[in-house]
Amino acid sequence: MNKKVLLRKSIVHMLMTILAVPIIFMVAWYVLSSSYNYSSGVFSLKNFSFLIEDISFQGMTLPLIWPIVLNTLIYSSIIVVVEVMIAVPAAYAFSRLDFRGRKTALKFLFIMRAFPGVTLIIATFLIILKLGIINTYLGVVLVAVSGSLPGQIYIMKGFFDDVPWDLEWAAMVDGATRWRAFRKVLLPTVSSGIGAIAVFAFLGAYGEWFLFKLFIFDDTALTMGGYLAKLVTKENSILSYGLITAIGLFYTLPIIIFYIFSQGIFMRINIGGTKRV
Amino acid sequence: MIQLKGIVKEYENTKTKEKTRAVDGVNLDIKKGEFIALLGPSGCGKTTTLMMIAGLLKPTEGDIFFNDKLVTYMEPKDRNIGMVFQSYAIYPHLKVKDNIAFPLLERGMNKKEAYEKSMAMAKILQIEQLMERKPAQLSGGQQQRVAIARALVKNPDILLLDEPMSNLDARLKLDVRDEIRQLQQKIGVTTVIVTHDQEEAQAISDRVAVLDKGKIQQFDTPYNLYHSPRNYFVANFLGNPPMNFIDGIVRVKNGNIFFEADGVLQMLNEEIPSKYIGRTLRLGIRPHDIRMVAYSEIMFRIELVEYLGQKELIKTKSIGNPLSIRFTQEEKCTAKVGDTCYLDFDKNKIHLFDMDNEGININYL
User: Fold this and answer.
1) Nearest to B270 by CA among B252, B254, B257
2) Which of A94, A245, B6, B211 gives 20 to 30 Å between its CA and that of B279?
C-alpha cells in the first residue's frame, strides 16, 4: 500500500520535472543572457547601462528608461482607477437590479469577453483618428478599457452574486439607505473582488504594448511594454539579445515581486471569480 | 400595534406575463407586546408578508399600519424595526462590537454612547466576551446572538425574526427558543416570527397565523389551532403524528347519527346540522383520541408498532381497502403486528370537514 503510493508519487514527480525542464531552461537562458556573452564567454553588467544613460545601437537611439517607467506607472494607475470605477457599479447593477434588457446585456458581455479585438483594429484606428485622439493616452485608455471591461464586470458580478441579499437588507433595516448599504456593507464585503479586478487591470496595463505600437508615435510617451516591443520589432533588424533580455528582466522583476505578495488574492479569484451567469 | 389590511403581493412572470399572488389578501391585527408566528409550508407567503412589514418589499395592494400610522410606503430605515435574518446577515468585515453598534451609528448617535449601549445589550445576550472578534470566528449560536443583539440594540418598536432557528441543531434550538421567548417578555417588544416548524411556532408564540397559498387559514392561539382547526388545511398541517382523515357519509340510523365509510361505522354527536345528513364529509381524528376496545364497528389490522418513548404509535390498515389509521396509546401494547383490533373514536374530539366548501370545519359554520 505504502509502496504503491510512493511509486505513484515518484512517477508524478518525474513527469512534472520533465515537463518543467524546458520552462526552467528558458528562464535560465533569459536571466543569463542579460549578463553573459555566449560567444565570448564573459560576464558583464554592460547591458544594464540603460538604467543610467541613453542607448545608441545600430544607429538608433533609445530614450532613457526612467521617464518610460513613470509613463508606465501613470498609464497603469489610470487604467486601474477607470476600470474599477466603471466595473464595480456596473457589476452591482447586473447582480442586483432588475432592469429592462439585463439578460440581453449580460449575454452581450459574455460574447464581448471572448471577442477577438484584433479583428476590429483598423476600424478602431480610424475612429480614434477621426476623434483626433491619436497619439494621446486618452485614445489608448478608451480602447484598452472598452476591451477589458466586459471581463472585469463579469468577474465583479460573480463577487456581488456571492453576497446574500440578507446582508444588504439588514443594513437597510438598520437605518441605512440603499447607497449607504452599498458603501458601508456591500463594498467592504467584496473588497477581495475589487482587489482582484484592480490587479487584473494593472497587469493588463503593465503588459500592454499592442495599442502603444498602434496609436502612439511619440517614443517618449511609450510605456515599458511598448518600449520593449519597439525594441524587439524595430525594422525587423536583429538587436542585441543581451540588451533586450536585460530590459526584459528589469520589466519582469516588479511583477514577480508583486505575485509573491498577492498570491492570496489570486487564490480567491479562482473561487469567487467565475460563478453563475 | 401592527395592522395589515388586505395585503396582496403579486409577481409577474416576465415571459408569460402571468401574474401569481404570493400573498393574497392578508388581514392581521397584532397587539402591542404580542408574540406572533407566521406558520406555513414553503411558498405560502409567510416570508413575503414579513418582508412587507419590514418595508423591504412593497405590497401590490393593501395597507400596513404601525400604531394607526400608515407605513405602507415608508422606507425600512424609518420604521424602527429590528430584524434577524435566517442567515443572520452579520456584516462579515466588522467586529462583533461594530456589528451591534452599526444601527446606532447609522442613526447618528455619538460613538461613545453607541458602544456603551452595544456593550449593555451584549451583556444581556451574554456575548460581551466576543466583542473584539470577527464574525468568521463565531459559532452558529454565537452569530445568532450577535444578530439578535444588533436587532434589539436600537430599541425597536417591532422585532421581526425570519426563521432564526433553522440553522441551529435540534438541542440548541430548544434552548434558544426559550431564551428568545424570555427576552421578548422581559423587553415587551412586539415580535413576529416566520417559521415552518409547527412545534416552534406553537411553543414560542401567543398567537399563530397559519398561512397557505398566500391566505391566512386561521389566526388563533396555539391551543385553539390544535383543538379546533378552522379547516382541513390547518387540521392536516398541525400535529405530529398527524391527524387521521377518513372520507365518508353522515347517516341517521335508529335516531342516532353515524359516520359511515368502507369498514368504518362511528357514532357522532347529535349537534350535526341536518343539512349534512346524507352528505360526504371528511372525518378527522387525532391519533391520541382513538382507543382500542373489545368490540366496535371499526375493525383494522395492525401493520406497525413504533415505540416513541412514553407512548406507542400504532399504524393499522383497513381490511379490504387502502385506508390506514395511526393512533397512540400509553400502556404497552399487547397486540402484535398482524392482529386485528377494534377501534373507537372519541366522539367529542371528532372534526368534520366539508371538502366541497374549501375544507371548512363544520363547527365553524
Assistant:
1) B257
2) B211
